[in-house]
C-alpha cells in the first residue's frame, strides 16, 4: 500500500513544483529582455577596423604574388636540372662546403659508385 501512495505523491509533488519553476524562468526571461537593447546596439555598430583589414588583406595578396613570381623561375630551373640528371642514372647531391660562401654546387655521381662489393654486415651483395 505504501508503494501506491508514494507513486501518487511523486506525481502530486511534481505538480506542486511547477509554479516555482515557472517563476524562475520568468525571472531569467526578464533579465535577458533587459539586455537585448544593449546587445542590439553592439551588433548594429560598424566595426572601425574593417577598412584597415581590407587593406592588409590586399597587401598580403600582393606580397604573396610577388614571392611566388620570384620563386617560380628558380624552382622550374632547379626541377629541370634534377629531371635531366635523374634520367641519366646519376645521383644528385648538394655540396654545402664550397669556398665561395653560401653558394651551393650541384654534383652528379653515378649510382654504381655507392654499391660496394662487401657490405658493412660482411655478407656478399647479391646484386653484383
Verbal overview:
This protein has 128 residues and is mainly alpha-helical. It has a domain at 90-128. It has helices at residues 2-44, 50-87, and strands at residues 90-95, 105-110. Strands 1-2 form a two-stranded antiparallel ribbon. The radius of gyration is 39 Å and the shape is elongated.
Main sheet summary = 2 strands, antiparallel
Mean pLDDT, all residues: 75
Main structural class: mainly alpha
Query: Radius of gyration in whole Å, from Cα?
Result: 39 Å
* Uncertain runs: 89-100
Total beta strand runs = 2
Q: What is the number of helices?
A: 2
> Major sheet: order of its strands?
1-2
Spell out the key features of this protein:
128 residues; mainly alpha; two-stranded antiparallel ribbon; 2 helices; elongated
Task: Give a brief rundown of this model.
By secondary structure, this protein is mainly α. It is built from two helices and two strands.
Architecture blueprint of SSEs:
Elements lengths: L1 H43 L5 H38 L2 E6 L9 E6 L18
Antiparallel strand pairs: 1-2
Amino acid at each position: 500500500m505504501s508503494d501506491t501512495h508514494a507513486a501518487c505523491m511523486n506525481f502530486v509533488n511534481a505538480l506542486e513544483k511547477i509554479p516555482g519553476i515557472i517563476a524562475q524562468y520568468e525571472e531569467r526571461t526578464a533579465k535577458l529582455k533587459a539586455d537585448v537593447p544593449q546587445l542590439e546596439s553592439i551588433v548594429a555598430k560598424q566595426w572601425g577596423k574593417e577598412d584597415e583589414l581590407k587593406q592588409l588583406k590586399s597587401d598580403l595578396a600582393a606580397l604573396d604574388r610577388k614571392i611566388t613570381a620570384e620563386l617560380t623561375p628558380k624552382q622550374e630551373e632547379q626541377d629541370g636540372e634534377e629531371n635531366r640528371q635523374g634520367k641519366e642514372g646519376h645521383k644528385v647531391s648538394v655540396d654545402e662546403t664550397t669556398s665561395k660562401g653560401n653558394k651551393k654546387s650541384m654534383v652528379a655521381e653515378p649510382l654504381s659508385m655507392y654499391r660496394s662489393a662487401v657490405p658493412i654486415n660482411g655478407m656478399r651483395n647479391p646484386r653484383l
